[in-house]
Design goal:
This protein is of the alpha/beta class and about 325 residues long. About 35% of the residues lie in helices and about 15% in strands. The longest helix has 18 residues. The mean pLDDT is about 95. It comes from Novosphingobium pokkalii.
Amino acid sequence: MSTVSQITSRPLAGRMVNPIGLGCMSLSWAYGGRPGDAEGIALLHRAIDLGYDHFDTARLYGHGHNETLVGQALKGKRDKVFLASKMGIFASGDKRGIDCHPDTIRAELEKSLTLLQTDHIDLYYMHRRDFTVPIEDSVGAMADLIQEGKIGAIGLSEMSADTLRRAAAVHPIAAMQTEYSPWTRQAEIAVIEACRDLGTTFVAFSPVARGALANGVRDPQALEEGDIRKAMPRFMADNWPRNLALVDAFNALAAREGVTPAQLSLAWVLGKGEHIVAIPGTGKITHLEENIARWDWAIPASVTAEIDALINQQTVAGHRYAGAMLPTIDTEDFAV
């Protein structure tokens, strides 16, 4: 007996895409070991050759560098990729915080179109909830951009089921992007079900647990300076030994099933619903190839059950974010 089949493409904003897309952040932002621009463009071209047809970027990533890089890579190839980007988080210069006022949304879109060297973005997200602006006002502004042909669909990121329903009452919401993997389960509280009810695609970011479930982290202290994982509770010294034991057990399950840990984690995510797609990120072509190589493998239900028993809210040590980040997240959370 198997869980959800992963053999066919999945719907996203009226298009059918490979269930494994590409999160482009790693090429510009957040993690160590980033490639140079030429290597990054080569990776994006290789992704297209391999069958990746959904690229996800954001203004935040490298303060525009990531959109610029993606735009350069898509010259002459724009029609091959469903392109998603995000606005709303500001973390450089004089502006820091979240701003999803209608005028800001429009101004940020124009900048993104220029950097991406395109006249439209297929899916445009609010990167985080702006609690100073009614979600209805922000969605209304984005709906105007759809009417103008500048974006194809509206997405939300790290928002709650209630916010999603309020937004969808104004205009259909094509996608909700939220962190989701065996060791990050907040979306299971309400968001995944709400997406299913509303016909919204759930887009899982960090589906291999920021590298932990891709056998990519053995010693967090060895990560480069500036790598955001060094400040995340799950990778800190008081929590990591417990989490590493889970990783080792997970790796053993993958070996038994004849897949890599990353492939097992991705299959687990996709097996949780036919309305789910995943966007693992990487700066290495070898990982790019690995992530998509078994995209059509349907994880057996018995293996999913083993993973659920092994890695869950009770067994993982530490929250996914440090305390300063939590007020910016609208997604439901487990009681402490």
